[in-house]
Structure formats: structure tokens, C-alpha cells
Amino acid sequence: MQLTREQFELIAPLLPRQRGNVLLDSFEVVNAILYVAANGCKWRALPNHYGCWHTIYTRMSRWAKAGVLSTVFEKLQRERLMRVRIEAVSLD
Fold first, then answer.
1. 40-44 contacts at long range (C-beta below 8 A, 24 or more positions apart)
2. What whole-number distance in Å separates Cα of residue 59 and Cα of residue 55?
3. How far is Cα 57 from Cα 33, in angstroms, rounded to an integer?
4. For the segment 62-92, what is each residue's pLDDT rounded down to a tens digit?
5. What are the domain boundaries of the chain?
6. Nearest alpha-carbon partner for 82 in 29, 25, 20, 31
């Protein structure tokens, strides 16, 4: 489950503008988030070619708290670019 650059351009305006010295662009971060969602893996198990898992997790967490991810996933579904359904199960 990966977005192409063309697909990403449709959701790019929904993402916050990155400030400062940013090593990963939002395209890479969104694809990493989709990888974790599709494969159900732990953040630490994210393949290295996506970048530092902690950086991606931190940005994902910020976006989720701000409601950005739900808006992005909704747009992906509305445009029929991708079916995204996130469910979480937690055992303690």
C-alpha cells in the first residue's frame, strides 16, 4: 500500500507545512504510515529505507492528535485512491 507522487499531490495540501531542518518529506512519512497500517508491524520493525522509525512515529502522532490523519484517510477514500481502514487492538 504505497502512494505515487501524483496521488500524494492530491493530499499534500492537507498536511502541515514542515519547518526547520526536516530530513524526511511528508511523502515518505505518509508511505511509512501506510506501510505500518497495512502490515500491522511495530514501529521499530519499519524497514530502514523509510527513515528513522522514531521520527516517523513522532510526526504521525502529531498529525493524529491534530486530526490531520483522519482528514487524509478520508480524502484517500473519497478520491478512491486507496481503501484505508485503521483498527487497533491492544492487549494489556
1. none
2. 6
3. 8
4. 999 999 999 998 888 887 777 655 555 555 4
5. 5-78
6. 31
Q: Cα–Cα distance between 6 and 8 in angstroms, integer? A: 5
Straight-line distance from the first to the last Cα atom of the chain, in angstroms, rounded to the nearest whole number: 29
C-alpha 64, offset from chain centre: 9
CA distance linking residue 50 with residue 77, whole number of Å: 23
Cα 60 to Cα 52: distance, rounded to the nearest angstrom: 12
C-alpha cell at 46: 519499519
Residue 72 and residue 9: Cα distance in Å, rounded?
A: 12
User: Phi/psi of residue 20, each to 5°?
Assistant: 80, -160
pLDDT digits (tens, 9 = 90+) for 24-71: 889 999 999 999 988 888 999 999 999 999 999 999 999 999 999 999
User: Using CA atoms, how far apart are residues 73 and 77, in angstroms rounded to an integer?
Assistant: 6
Place of cell 508511505: 31
